[in-house]
Amino acid sequence: MITESPAEVARAAATVVAERTGTPTHDIALVLGSGWGTAADLIGETVATVENTVVPGFTGAAVAGHTGTMRSVEVAGSGKRALVFGTRTHYYEGRGVRAVVHTIRTAAAAGCQTIVLTNGCGGLNPAWAPGTPVLIRDHINLTGESPIEGANFVDLTDLYTPRLRELAREVDPTLDEGVYVQFRGPHYETPAEVQMAKIIGGDLVGMSTTLEAIAAREAGLDVLGISLVTNAAAGISDTPLSHEEVIEAGRGAAARCGDLLAQIVGRL
Q1: 265, 116 in Cβ contact below 8 A?
Q2: Which end of the chain, N or C, is less surrounded by CB atoms within 10 Å?
Q3: Which sequence positions are flagged as catalytic?
Q4: What does the alpha-carbon distance between residue 233 and residue 188 come to, in Å, rounded to a whole number?
Q5: pTM reported for the whole predicted model
Q6: Which top class of enzyme applies to this chain (predicted)?
Q7: Cβ neighbours around 172 below 10 Å, total
């Protein structure tokens, strides 16, 4: 668990990132969730790769389908530099909320103005087949936690930047959008919990992203959230849930997701 000041640890991490990548600042950050791991290859040329374990506050990947490295990528045709995180710390790992959002605070300390948060999730809309990317319009945080400490009353209206969602739809007009609901995990949701999520306005269910998005807004970053529907949520179909299914759906959608991200990032 991170016990030092979050800002101090983020600044220390950003200093190491700058040294290891040879890049004083980055412009855009991407967090690649389950199913998105190969997308970075299509964004541009990887200039440097840094093992998470040499950067203060970071650990190796704890979940299959993630990679324990971060990359500095020169975005094709834009002259911008992206900091691409191949894994995230999930709330269910038990390392505390500060650790969960350390990636976000490091990205802000590294100079990023925009962050793209991706994840693999369960879909509540039967029309969203596995492999369908969906823009996150809003979220419901069911973790019972917040990354904001103290009397800092951050406005979460339009947390997921409308301008960035419009830009994404310019790239792919077929993109749907929905409300992402984060459960604590690591167990999958029960069919009754999925129905509850639907009743309160949810369209997508998963175990990440909302705490990161809140921390990004606190840090002043523009946020784009994209979920990859890797399976129908519990009770929506008769198929039992498995992480192997999540990984396989990600492989099948890798080309589409990578191309989508590359085009979006190129226009940011």
Answers
A1: yes
A2: N
A3: 189
A4: 9
A5: 0.91
A6: transferase
A7: 14
